[in-house]
Structure formats: C-alpha cells, structure tokens
Design a protein that fits this description.
Elements (H helix, E strand, L loop, with lengths): L1 E10 L8 H12 L59 E8 L2 E9 L7 H4 L5 E4 L2 E4 L2 E11 L1 E13 L4 H9 L5 H20 L8 E16 L2 E14 L17 E4 L2 H10 L14 E3 L6
Antiparallel strand pairs: 1-3, 1-6, 2-3, 4-5, 7-9, 7-10, 8-9, 8-11
C-alpha cells in the first residue's frame, strides 16, 4: 500500500477543451521553463530549447514493468527537435466542469505538490491562453491523501478519451480481426498504463491486479496539435486504487485518459444516458493480469 498526496486546483475562468495545451504552456511560462515538471521537456544542454508554442508531450504507450528502466529518447541529431522526459507526469492539466462552465484545473501528485508554489508564489496570476488573458483566481482547491492498494474485489471506473495506442502498436491494432482480439489488446494496454502510473508515483505493487474492460462507450478520432489520434471512452473494472482525475495513456498531462471512479448512483445515471449504440465490447475475454514483476 502507498499513501498518495494529491492537490487539485480549479480556476475561476473558462477555457475550451482544446485549449488545455495552451493552458499548460501558459503555466509553464509563468513559473519558468527551468521547472521541468510543468512541461516535461528535457532542459539538459544536449536537448533542444523548449518552445511553449510548439510543445507537445506524447508519452509512448509502451509496456512498462517496475523492474525496467525508462530509457531516454535517442537524439536524431536535429537541433530543433525537443527532448522529453519519458516518465509519468506528476503535474497534469484538466478541465473541471462546473455547471455549464469548463474551468482549467491543475492536478499535482505527491512530490510535485511542493512544485506548485512556483505558480502560487507569483505576484501576478494572469496568464495568456491563446489570444486571451485570464486571471487565475482559485475557484476550488482540494487536498487529499489517498491509500493506494490492490483489493480483493474490483472497483468500477470510467476512462474518458483514452489514447491507448501509439504509431507502432496502432498498426498492430489494425491487423487484429478476431472478435476477442481487440478487447484483449486494449486490456493489455490499459494494464500497462496503470502500471506506468504506479511506477511514476513510486508505488511498488506487492500483489497482482486484474483489468477488465466492461463497456466501450465511444471510439473516436480527435484532433491533437492538428493530428488525428484515436481515443476511446470506456468503462472498466480493476481491483486497484486509481484516484479521480489522474490521466492514463498518451497525453495524460493534457486532458486525455481521465479516470473517474464509478459509484453505484453514478453508474446508473451514466447508463441511463447511453444509447443502444453504446454496447459492451463484442466478446468477453479473460481479465488481463499484471504484477510489478511481470511484463506484457
């Protein structure tokens, strides 16, 4: 078991979902680009200079195990290509929907809670997001300490706009044509992304956990930096603790792959809003099982 500290701050202004990347760049400029957790670019002398206007953090949807080391990206020799830290982002940028207002939210995990002071110690809290200037007045501040554990019984979750695939395994995904192959493939990727989260927050798993996708709510192409990427909204069960609002998969720091715990009332409400087209995955498969010592 691990105790995870969490800080979530929503600001009393409104942005559009596609402006999360601009919000991230604005906060990174405000705190100073030397604070790499806010943008996850590598500022070491051998890497390229970080440009907030062109910044995109696209973590690889690779398989991780807690015994493996995350290797650094190889340089291709081009000075204009930025390097990234391939690590789970402990500072993430979200949308907090309140009534009809979509408010920008900053989520800080564990040791990066202390990093938040680089923003809140600023004399001026105004940031420029796109063509507009926003004053970051705090609308909601939530501090919590969560016990992360592997349980005997599964918990129900919803995962919104999860970018499960990278360019490499997308081709593998396309070649799958069996009834149960694609659900099983996604379950393996989901288990790997959960393990990446656990590794990133320093949680050494001492038990195995199981993942089961129970419903595919939506499969859609979304635009990200003028590129179309495939995203899934799913419901799944896993016997492992996952805090609300954390991100899983590619773009986890930029509003993709947002996790929400499904309570009984929330599940029934969500189900009543789904049309018949939102059917369960076509064929059940055995739960994907992963431990801290296993590799997919």
């Amino acid at each position: 078991m691990k105790q995870l500290r969490l800080l979530a701050v929503s600001f009393d202004t409104e942005i559009k979902p596609w402006e999360i990347i601009l919000f991230r760049a604005a906060v990174a400029r405000k705190v100073g680009l030397e604070h790499e957790w806010f943008h996850n670019h590598d500022n070491s002398p051998k890497s390229a200079v970080f440009s907030p206007k062109s910044a995109v953090f696209s973590p690889q949807s690779a398989v991780f195990s807690q015994k493996s080391e995350v290797s650094s990206q190889k340089s291709d020799g081009r000075a204009d290509k930025p390097k990234y830290h391939h690590r789970y982002p402990l500072i993430q940028y979200k949308i907090d929907t309140h009534s009809q207002q979509m408010r920008p939210m900053l989520l800080c995990l564990d040791d990066c809670i202390e990093e938040a002071h680089h923003l809140f110690s600023q004399a001026d809290w105004s940031v420029r997001i796109g063509n507009d200037t926003h004053d970051l007045r705090i609308a909601r501040l939530h501090v919590d300490q969560i016990n992360l554990n592997v349980w005997e019984t599964p918990l129900a979750y919803r995962l919104h706009k999860w970018r499960a695939l990278n360019s490499g395994n997308f081709r593998e995904w396309q070649q799958l044509d069996g009834v149960a192959e694609r659900p099983a493939f996604l379950e393996n990727m989901l288990a790997a992304h959960i393990l990446s989260f656990a590794t990133g927050v320093g949680w050494e798993l001492d038990k195995r956990f199981e993942v089961k996708i129970t419903k595919l709510l939506k499969e859609e192409w979304v635009s990200f930096k003028d590129v179309k990427v495939l995203a899934f909204t799913i419901e799944f069960k896993a016997n492992i603790s996952l805090p609300d609002y954390i991100g899983l998969g590619a773009g986890a720091s930029e509003g993709f792959g947002v996790v929400r715990r499904q309570t009984v009332s929330r599940q029934s409400t969500a189900s009543s809003r789904q049309s018949d087209a939102h059917a369960p995955l076509s064929s059940p498969s055995e739960p994907s099982t992963l431990s801290g010592q296993d590799e997919l």
